[in-house]
Amino acid sequence: MRRLAARGAAADAGEAAAPAAHSADCAQGRSPRPRRLIDLCAIWDTGVFVSAAYWKGASSGVTRRRLNEAETLSSVREAQLQRLEAAGPRGPGRREQGPGLRMAGQQPPPWVHAAFLFCLLSLSGAIEIPMDPSIQNELSQPPTITKQSVKDHIVDPRDNILIECEAKGNPAPSFHWTRNSRFFNIAKDPRVSMRRRSGTLVIDFRSGGRPEEYEGEYQCFARNKFGTALSNRIRLQVSKSPLWPKENLDPVVVQEGAPLTLQCNPPPGLPSPVIFWMSSSMEPITQDKRVSQGHNGDLYFSNVMLQDMQTDYSCNARFHFTHTIQQKNPFNLKVLTNHPYNDSSLRNHPDMYSARGVAERTPSFMYPQGTASSQMVLRGMDLLLECIASGVPTPDIAWYKKGGDLPSDKAKFENFNKALRITNVSEEDSGEYFCLASNKMGSIRHTISVRVKAAPYWLDEPKNLILAPGEDGRLVCRANGNPKPTVQWMVNGEPLQSAPPNPNREVAGDTIIFRDTQISSRAVYQCNTSNEHGYLLANAFVSVLDVPPRMLSARNQLIRVILYNRTRLDCPFFGSPIPTLRWFKNGQGSNLDGGNYHVYENGSLEIKMIRKEDQGIYTCVATNILGKAENQVRLEVKDPTRIYRMPEDQVAKRGTTVQLECRVKHDPSLKLTVSWLKDDEPLYIGNRMKKEEDSLTIFGVAERDQGSYTCVASTELDQDLAKAYLTVLADQATPTNRLAALPKGRPDRPRDLELTDLAERSVRLTWIPGDDNNSPITDYVVQFEEDQFQPGVWHDHSKFPGSVNSAVLRLSPYVNYQFRVIAINEVGSSHPSLPSERYRTSGAPPESNPSDVKGEGTRKNNMEITWTPMNATSAFGPNLRYIVKWRRRETRETWNNATVWGSRYVVGQTPVYVPYEIRVQAENDFGKGPEPDTVIGYSGEDYPRAAPTDVKIRVLNSTAISLQWNRVYSDTVQGQLREYRAYYWRESSLLKGLWVSQKRQQAGFPGDRLRGVVSRLFPYSNYKLEMVVVNGRGDGPRSETKEFTTPEGVPSAPRRFRVRQPNLETINLEWDHPEHPNGILTGYTLKYVAFNGTKVGKQIVENFSPNQTKFTVQRADPVSRYRFSLSARTQVGSGEAVTEESPAPPKEATPTAAPPTSPPTTVGATGTVSSTEATATAATTTEATTVPTTPTVAPTTITAATVATTTATTAATTTTTTTTESPPTTTRTKIQESAPDEQSIWNVTVLPNSKWANITWKHNFGPGTDFVVEYIDSNHTKKTVPVKAQAQPIQLTDLYPGMTYTLRVYSRDNEGVSSTAITFMTSTAYTNNQADIATQGWFIGLMCAIALLVLILLIVCFIKRSRGGKYPVREKKDVPLGPEDPKEEDGSFDYSDEDNKPLQGSQTSLDGTIKQQESDDSLVDYGEGGEGQFNEDGSFIGQYTVKKDKEETEGNESSEATSPVNAIYSLA
Predict the structure, then answer these.
(1) Would you say residue 1441 has pLDDT above 60?
(2) What's the Cα-to-Cα distance from 1148 to each of 707, 1151, 1188, rounded to whole Å?
């Protein structure tokens, strides 16, 4: 019998270090299941076959791969299992087929895919013909369906219809379709076409037609000369979105508290529409556990409340394909109630229903009806169970499953616990579920019986079968379902019963067996398995190939590998029957196998350790009865890359130059790259660094240069690295003597180590010290390394003074010691000395046992025994192992034992939480250790089964309760009782409208206790509480929920107590309500007292109503300060008080005598009313404004400690010093300091406003230094702001108006370098110096002056109008009087004086003359009628009236009788 296979290499080309050891099977190239030709040691990852052992053992950083890739794939498939299970003995000369792919250590090139495609096909069920065109053109393949539409194909009626069907094969298949099981003639329908080189149908409606005419069941057939493949039966349906039937809905009348269901009844659509409820104004209906939408779309009210009448209710249906929303006519709800007022304060009231006169009643189910129902669901679908209940109060819904727990990983609750959804249902989810609806009036349950059925699903889907002529095979089609599905076989789309008989084919139920297959046996078989819930259809072809050997990889590959590494040479090939493969070196000699070579059954040649002599040309030859093929691989061996001059640890002073050496030896044919890392990150080579081929130089070393430096030397095949640490020292003081001036360094390494006085348990080590480099050696550290447990790892052995150079070392049995010595002085440690020669001590039985033995359960049915393993120096012999013994405590049963080489052992199938006696004894090949101590351990715990009962609550005070409960039985704890735990949460506050957090809190009571106290509760609140038992596994079931109410308590302190001093007479107080009222506020109590230095006045008490948050205090005198204490009250009493003091009053500027050289008068920071707003520490001054004084008095300086913004006068002199007022936004507080020599921060300047402040400072740090601004308010709240370098000025934006702050600036890298603290105060929201304007003297004086002026004007106007005036009689009235006109002889003067001249720049007439200015008192304008009566001298007689002509009102003249200026002139 001939067999088909695809052989291929499975390893890297040898460019990596040897991988870690694998399992025995995989390491030898064998599959763990030798009867299968699938290599279970290989996996497929990102398109490349990768060995499982590779991921576990491959070296991660040894090499980069450089391989030529050929894009080939094998066409063989998994005929292996069928061939091996076929009947008949194997003939002579036939070779047992081994595993397929085996890889170790490296990732193979992509051409390896082809050689192992049969493994992939065995796992995935897909078959690929190699991509090589020469193979593609020769190998035939029956059709395979590669793409098809879904079984239920719903299309949009607005689009063209597309039914997909694509297939591949060689030759390319042709396509035809059936519709409703009849041939569908595409050529007769002009709307229907088929895509080129595809079977996809396109039905075009651009020229008209109805999509509904094409609904039906379609099936695609793909055919070539080797067979026919079938698609699924595709049911084509057109999406429908019918309109809602028109209907007139009468108002729904319902009694308040009654249940209600608003039915939606959406029109049937395809697919079903999404239902949601909104008002007619398109506002969503708020849903909660009382009002919610059911799965059927109806809207359920567990009980109707009056507020439900505030909107209407409309059901909306959204259709997926048409993207339309249809709205049903809205329901109008009318609620009959005994309480017509909809008091919003009752909505969250605990007795909301009784307050509204609604009778409470037990729950009843609105959906589903009755006490029991049933539901069927298909396997793999989602199960949705729903229970909606009515009742007053609104019932709570809980879900349970009879005889078990709900599947926690798949179950979730929806719709306010009214729905239970279980995803991906399986058979074990069947059973009885029940929902429990309960309120305080009672409970009711509904049982739902769930039956899980199943459409057919695959157990063993038939796979394509590729055989060589004469081979045997089988197709298997196994499926399961509920009910059990039936299996029907077809061949090339026809029932197998009606197909021509084939003597080489035998049908046995769900299996077709092929024997002695020939080329004529090629066909496509279909397996159709179905039951009442669905069907599965699978195609699988049988192909018979007869192919001579072919090589699948690129020819004459070059493989480069590092000396002494392990590698594999791969030779992927293809042929049918299976070719045999042999390897030769340099075209001569015998087949390579054995010794340093190993040939795997897949054809890969492994060289275990590469040597120089292994370099050469390797030839692989594949042979079968049809011919042979060969390929060559050229192997080059390269020298490894090594750093022979490594960088050394160095200690350098800041500012000096450091050079780190890194000299590398590598293979000259490989390109070398040297790079540097700092602290394991790529090093940026700046302008202070210079990278050369064999060194790294750092100029001007700074503190930031300190760290570890790694030199990485790499080629394309390997790399080596070495690390050194650079320590940077700060500048030191100048030495005081010549000896101290000598540079100090780390000592040189000790040398010439020698072992003498060799004994069984000791040895003497002697060494020669190295140069101490001007710093005496203080200590020597002796280290050792052993080569058995941790080879290459050095451990500290002992430490000796720096005055000795010889020491006796105590040794442990059976350790192959090697020693080295390190010298230490005050600068640092030396490099380790060269290792000494090795010395092995003889073995002995262990003298101790492992420590820290424990026995604890990790699961409820096991116990994990762990211990701390012994190290190499305590093993005392080879093969260290541990004898673990255990038995049940107090049972006197025999000891169980096991031998373990690790540090843990798991005992399985243990009872829940029972004590065990445990012993762990060390043993090696020389014997056992001493008898171990017995340790008590416990098996795993399970969750407690019982909850505390008879929980009693006694309220102790407004913030604490006392709990008492009955203990649970010890056997129900199922573990160690850790504590009784109370879970409690604040359900609501008794204060109306106060939002509370319902976060669950807990209080634990460790040990077996029966009572405890829960404190730190909120007063005047409703709480709920549950108790549980806690063991090491977790919480047990919860007890019955208890409710309790805490009484009123005292309130917390009023928030944001603010003291304002707008002027010298009053102080304004403001505050906010307490954060936690803890009851009904009855008012506030204010206590205040005046003080002046050590003198304290009488305390005054004021009581306010709970709504008052402001108060004004009238000052008794402008000097004293006031201390205020404010607290809130409830009926229980006063709460915590908040205390504030009024700002210090401003001080007068007193002139003092000074020498003539004194500076001019300086006034400190201005613009604030209170001195506390601009105060600073003793070192603080303020930026000032210079004001000149009278020359008779010496200059005066007002310090920043007491600054006032009012005019300061003194009684002793007549000199007045006036400060300059500035707005509060320019208040500037500054620390005036001189620049220090060392690194410091000084001259901190603050420019505050009401809610922000700008901060600047000076420093002498280097560029790139980060700072932190720290400020603390008067409530002792500290905040910090990180500041990037060169980011000044900084603005603090979260300040409160009128708040005092203390601020400092410090270095982010060194908090010890800080500025002097400075205090500043933000201005109030309306500025502190904005005093009551009505009480200011200047304002009163101004108002009085204005009033006097107005009074004078009124008197003048009255006099003028009452006595009249004498006017000159002019012959020409149209000529204006000039200013030079003389007075008349009778003493009267003309009203047209200089004030009535046109102003400069006045508007002129068109002819260039100025418009005539006439007096408002023109005689023509007065009198009755159009004429006036005059005396002989022209004076006015009789009463007159004012005539306002339109022309006059439109002119620029003004009435002089009402002009203050002219009135004053008239007085003159």
Answers:
(1) no
(2) 61, 10, 17
What's the rounded Cα separation, in Å, for the pair 80 and 122? 9
Per DSSP, the residues of 87-139 read SSPPPTTPPPP--S----SSPPPTTHHHHTHHHHHHHH------S-HHHHHH-
Identify the residue whose tokens are 């009024």: 1142
Q: 1150 pLDDT exceeds 60? A: no
* Confidence band, pLDDT 50/70/90 cuts, at residue 348: low
- In the structure encoding, which two tokens stand for residue 1460, read together? 């203050």
H helices within 1192-1268, ranges in order?
Answer: none
User: Tell me, what DSSP letter sits at residue 1197?
Assistant: B
Under DSSP, the state recorded for 1203 is: -
Q: Name the CA radius of gyration of the chain, rounded.
A: 51
At residue 350, the pLDDT reads 57
Taking the alpha carbons of 840, 844, 845, 847 in that order, is the dihedral positive or negative?
negative
Distances (CA, A) of 221 to 173, 176, 224, 236, 522: 9, 5, 10, 17, 17
The DSSP annotation for 613-664 comes to GG-EEEEEEEEETTEEEEEEEEEEEEPPPEEEE----EEEETT--EEEE-EE
Q: Which residues pair with 109 in a beta bridge?
A: none
Which of helix, strand or coil describes residue 204?
A: coil
The residue count for the chain: 1468
> What is the pLDDT averaged over residues 250-275?
89
Of 462, 578, 553, 524, the residue nearest 140 (C-alpha): 524
Q: Where are the beta strands (DSSP E) in 958-1037?
A: 960-966, 979-989, 1001-1006, 1011-1014, 1021-1030
Alpha helices by DSSP H, 358-407: none
| Residue 884 to residue 866: CA distance in whole angstroms | 10
What contacts 510, CB < 8 A, 6 or more positions away?
476, 477, 478, 479, 487, 527
Joined together, the tokens standing for residue 1310 give 């060194």
Amino acid at 706: Q
Q: Is 883 exposed, middle or buried (0-12, 13-18, 19+ CB in 10 A)?
A: middle
Q: Is a pLDDT exceeding 70 seen at residue 406?
A: yes
Residues 106 and 54 sit within 8 Å (Cβ to Cβ): yes
pLDDT digits (tens, 9 = 90+) for 1417-1436: 443 343 334 444 434 343 33
Contact 117, 47 (CB under 8 A): no
pLDDT score for 132:
66
Q: Mean pLDDT of all residues in the chain?
A: 77
Give a three-class secondary structure readout of 1025-1046. Answer: EEEEEECCCCECCCCCCEEEEC
pTM over cut 0.85: no
> From CA 46, how far away is CA 40, in angstroms rounded?
17
Tally of CB atoms within 10 A around 1212:
7
- Find where tokens 């009955």 sit: 966
Q: How many CA atoms lie within 13 A of 1069 on its CB side?
A: 27
pLDDT tens track for 896-936: 999 999 999 999 999 999 999 999 999 998 899 999 999 99
Task: Choose the most confident range, by mean pLDDT, from 11-20, 83-92, 912-921.
Answer: 912-921
Nearest to 1183, CA basis, from 1159, 1206, 1162: 1162
Other Cβ atoms within 10 Å of 1338 Cβ, number:
8
Helix (H) or strand (E) holding 258: none
With tokens 């002529």, the residue in question is 469
Lowest mean pLDDT among 109-123, 782-796, 1066-1080, 1294-1308: 109-123
